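Treating backbone geometry as a discrete language has practical consequences that deserve illustration. The amino acid sequence and the backbone structure tokens for this protein are reproduced below.
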Amino acid sequence: MYGKAFAPEYQGALTTLSVNSSLTDVLAAGTEQLRAAERAGKPGEAARSGLAVAEAHRRLGRVEDADRAWKASYRAARQASDVPAMAWALWSGGTLARQRGAFRLARRLLQLAADLGERGGDIVVRGYSLAGLAETGRIQGDYEAVGRLHEQLLAEARRRGEARHTVWALEGIAQMHRNTGDYDTAYALFEESAEIAARADDRRGHAWALRGMADVVSVRDGDTERALELLSEAEATCRAMRLSSALAYNHKMRGNVLYRAGRYAEARALYEQALAEFREMSEPRGEALSRLGLAKSLARLGRDRAETAAELAELAGALERIGLQHARKMVARAYDELGIPDAGVAEARPAEVTR
């Protein structure tokens, strides 16, 4: 049995904030409490208020502000000798690093956060940090290495009745099944995560689950309209909560769904929109994946084959620089799909990879 979802990153005077609070409200409240704590000379409270500020900035796509905020939170926590607060700040920094495509830095910060969480006796930040490490590996395509960690974290979350973490773990495992072509298992896991999130009032987790369901409905069933309906429902939540990154990934997925349906002009428009959104928030992985979808759409709309081949070759390099192990296989699939010589790119994997 799961309780109502909560947001452990909203701490100190901000514990009354809901997991579903709009990010603009979180930012306003966090900034107010942060300034008050600084005036009162309370570094521990400043660290915890600053964590909410960092997370609001990150989720709004304001990466430079987020970077300054998590570092300030860490300095305040260290000044207060508050080990758990130090761990939370490092978790925020590691999550931001992953969002920016700096996977090596993300792993280092998240491991430090997990170690400090254990040392400070905060099992929640330890769990969140280990989850961040698992997600980093999954995004890079290292499924064998992180699959067991996902399963371990899912078991721990189920045992403690933590709905939000259960939803996260289910969605991560579902994504790995989807990316390796096991669509039925992926759909069942996305559906379970959507149900748990809805019962726990975790609107963010519910939106991500709906997006995963839409992807499978599109690729497995060819049900374009149902997929678009699910994405529209998820988009409403993303807009209400100002979830910039989730909204951009929603738009990219809508482009994927339209592309699969042969509606290439509509897909192009969605990929262009997602590309602009990812560039605005400096999220290189989303940017590269949007560029790949856009290149495929333009090719279908008659773009010169040599220009498409050059774009795909550039994208292969960009994705590898980000650190995605499956990058060459993703691009190879595009070469094959479009009937363009693969210019030496490694052979494609059986299933298309998405996020």
Remarks:
- The CA atoms of residues 143 and 176 lie 7 Å apart.
- DSSP finds 16 helices and no strands in the chain.
